[in-house]
Design a protein that fits this description.
Layout lengths: L8 H16 L3 H17 L6 H16 L3 H18 L5 H16 L3 H18 L6 H20 L1
Helix pairs in contact: 1-2, 2-3, 3-4, 4-5, 5-6, 5-7, 6-7
């Protein structure tokens, strides 16, 4: 096989898979380092507004979230949301999934009004698109909606 160089999109795919394996076995620091290398390569290829770049930001956010570093995770999830808004638009399942993920993190840090806002917006998008209820993001948003509703009643 011909060597493509480390600043090649295919190399990023290999790094992403490798980082995912490290994340799977809870080696978060190695996973994060590999994801950050992917981010650097994508930027150098001027692909920092692409869906691939958004996916990298999402995975970095997930890694921080799994470690309980929710505020850092949110910064990555919000950057991901901005890219998704520009690339796929606001009426898209990927954008709704991003909003539901942000809502989950806000719930984790007890920012219930923000969690409710993002989750309600995600649910509205899923309903407009008539996404099947078995879709993971839709199930996630519906589950969180029930939890937030119970919290809201408790706080009232």
């Amino acid at each position: 096989a011909e060597y493509m160089g480390e600043y090649h999109p295919e190399y990023v795919k290999v790094l992403m898979l490798t980082a995912g394996a490290y994340r799977w076995v809870s080696d978060f620091s190695t996973a994060r380092a590999l994801y950050c290398l992917c981010e650097k390569i994508q930027k150098s290829l001027s692909l920092s507004c692409s869906l691939e770049y958004s996916t990298i930001l999402n995975r970095i956010g997930l890694t921080y979230s799994l470690q309980g570093e929710y505020r850092i995770a949110l910064s990555y999830y919000h950057r991901c949301e901005q890219i998704n808004r520009r690339t796929v638009g606001v009426i898209h399942p990927l954008y709704a999934l991003n909003l539901a993920t942000i809502a989950l993190v806000y719930d984790k840090i007890s920012k219930f009004s923000a969690a409710l806002f993002y989750n309600t917006t995600a649910l509205r998008i899923y309903e407009m698109l008539e996404v099947p209820e078995i879709f993971m993001g839709y199930r996630l948003a519906r589950s969180l909606a029930g939890k937030l509703s119970r919290k809201q009643r408790t706080l009232a």
